[in-house]
Structures are given as C-alpha cells and as structure tokens.
C-alpha cells in the first residue's frame, strides 16, 4: 500500500524529496534468474521506469534522474546495447505521443554525440516538445559518466576563458555547476540504488555531494512504488546537516 499518495505538506505525511535519482540496476540478474535473456530484464526495467516516473510525478517529486546508459556500458555485447537503445527509442516515441496528456518534461544528460542519428533526432524532438512543461521533470542519463561530465564542463569553461566570455578568477562552485548537464536543476536529495550493489558507479559525482543514499537488494525490475515509499521514509529519518551541526 503506497504511503505517499498525493502532494502533501501535512505533518503526518511529509513532502517527498524534491529531486530523486536512481541507478536502475539489476535488470540482467533479474532476467538470468528467470532463465530469460538479459534484454528481457531491460524491457521489464523500462516498464518499471514508466511506473516509477508516473508515481514520482503524482506524489509531487519535482525531478527524477535515472541512469539509463553509462559511458562504460558500451563494453556490453552489441545485442544488449542495441536492445537498450531500442527500448529508449520506444519510450521516446510513446512519450512524444502522450506528451499533451502527461505533461512530463524530459531532459537528457550525457555525451549524446555517440548515439545514433535516429535516437538523436528523437531526443531533440522530445527535448523541444516537452520544454514548455513546467511541472515534473525526468532526466535520462545516456552515455553518461560523472567524471566525463566534469571534464566536459571544465573544457567548456576553459573554452569560455579563451574567448573572453569567462575569467578563471570568477570560477565558483555555482558558476561551474552551470557548465554541467544538470545546469539549473537542484542537486538530488535522495539517490537510490537497487540490486544490492553498494557503489556510486560514476553517477552524478558533483551533484551528489550532500545527497542521501538508499541501497536495497530489490532488483530494478521488481522495484515498486511501495519500495520507493520505503526509500522516502528512510530519507525522512535522516538528519541532513550539510556540514553543519
Ligand atoms: C543496469 O542493470 C541497467 C542498464 C545498464 C540499462 C538500463 C536501461 C533501461 C531500464 C531501459 C531503457 C530506459 C528507459 C529510461 C526507458 P544491469 O544490466 O547492469 O543489471 P545486472 O547488474 O544485473 O547485470
């Protein structure tokens, strides 16, 4: 029974974190345990992403950021990479069709240049079409790596210095944040990693400075709104001090 039903500010039902980020891990193991090909795990994981994104929107989360494909995931078999890319295309086609109804703003974090022209075109269309929506925003990390993002931002800042647009002495944490894929978006409050792995895997390295982590053994294809409620309840039990006392 989900705990967090709708947007609320009552003392009994605390508001959800403003920004939740998820490493959607465990698709492969889920499929293997069921005697299915790994790609079946990604298909199930893709459905769970839809369900969790809708749930986040309905309970008043403002931003959901998911790790869909890392800079290291190209090491997987061609079959698996192309299955994941196919699921992303399918999701974007559907998202475009339902955009008027769902009003979900979609953004993409990562070095998108390595993606196929077809996927790039869909991403561009989705990005532009959904830009007008002000409510819930889902950020999909594609060919994303936290270190790569920081290098990319440093390079862009250095470039701005060479053209005179920026000066090295003006660089602050806040200015640097504006060169990241997540420019203008608040840092994640809660980062969830299902599947039992307890590591960051190059996800939102800069943005996670003060995030609360939540790890669970549940595999991503088995992740439900009730599991998300548990993560949010755990988040509310934390004492966030941001370096203070
Ligand atoms: C990690 O599990 C998952 C991925 C690398 C791919 C995630 C992609 C999707 C859920 C599909 C498309 C996404 C969207 C947003 C529509 P794993 O394969 O590493 O699992 P394992 O650790 O059990 O092998």
TrEMBL record:
Q: Which GO terms describe its biological process?
A: polyprenol biosynthetic process
State the needed cofactors, names only.
Mg(2+)
Q: How is the cofactor bound?
A: Binds 2 magnesium ions per subunit.
Q: What is its EC number?
A: 2.5.1.-
Could you confirm whether the keyword Metal-binding appears in this record? yes
The record's annotation in CDD domains points to: Cis_IPPS
Q: What SUPFAM superfamilies does the record tag this protein with?
A: Undecaprenyl diphosphate synthase
Against InterPro entries, the record matches this protein to: UPP_synth-like (IPR001441), UPP_synth-like_CS (IPR018520), UPP_synth-like_sf (IPR036424)
**Recorded GO MF terms:** ditrans,polycis-undecaprenyl-diphosphate synthase [(2E,6E)-farnesyl-diphosphate specific] activity; magnesium ion binding
Magnesium listed as a keyword = yes
Q: Which UniProt keywords apply?
A: Magnesium, Metal-binding, Transferase
What GO cellular component entries does it have?
Answer: cytosol
Q: List ligand-binding residues for substrate.
A: 26-30, 38, 42, 70-72, 74, 76, 193, 199-201
Q: Which PROSITE patterns match?
A: UPP_SYNTHASE
Coiled-coil region list: none
Q: Which residues bind Mg(2+)?
A: 25, 212
UniProt enzyme class: transferase
The entry describes its oligomerization and partners as: Homodimer.
Write out the similarity annotation: Belongs to the UPP synthase family.
Record-given protein name = Isoprenyl transferase
What is the scientific name of the source organism?
Answer: Candidatus Avoscillospira avicola
């Amino acid at each position: 029974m989900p705990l967090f039903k709708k947007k609320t500010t009552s003392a009994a039902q605390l508001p959800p974190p403003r920004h939740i980020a998820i490493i959607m891990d465990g698709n492969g193991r889920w499929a293997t345990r069921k005697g299915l090909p790994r790609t079946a795990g990604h298909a199930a994981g893709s459905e769970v992403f839809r369900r969790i994104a809708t749930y986040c929107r309905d309970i008043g989360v403002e931003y959901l950021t998911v790790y869909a494909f890392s800079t290291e995931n190209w090491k997987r078999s061609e079959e698996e990479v192309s299955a994941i890319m196919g699921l992303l295309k399918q999701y974007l086609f559907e998202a475009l069709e339902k955009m008027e109804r769902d009003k979900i703003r979609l953004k993409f974090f990562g070095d998108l240049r390595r993606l196929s022209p077809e996927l790039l075109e869909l991403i561009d269309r989705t990005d532009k079409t959904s830009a007008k929506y002000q409510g819930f925003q889902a950020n999909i990390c594609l060919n994303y790596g936290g270190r790569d993002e920081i290098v990319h931002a440093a390079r862009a800042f250095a470039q701005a210095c060479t053209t005179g647009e920026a000066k090295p002495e003006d660089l602050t944490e806040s200015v640097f944040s504006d060169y990241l894929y997540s420019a203008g978006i608040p840092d994640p409050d809660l980062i969830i990693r299902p599947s039992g792995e307890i590591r960051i895997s190059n996800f939102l390295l800069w943005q996670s400075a003060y995030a609360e982590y939540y790890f669970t053994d549940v595999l991503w294809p088995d992740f439900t709104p009730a599991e998300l409620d548990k993560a949010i309840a755990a988040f509310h039990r934390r004492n966030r001090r941001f370096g203070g006392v």
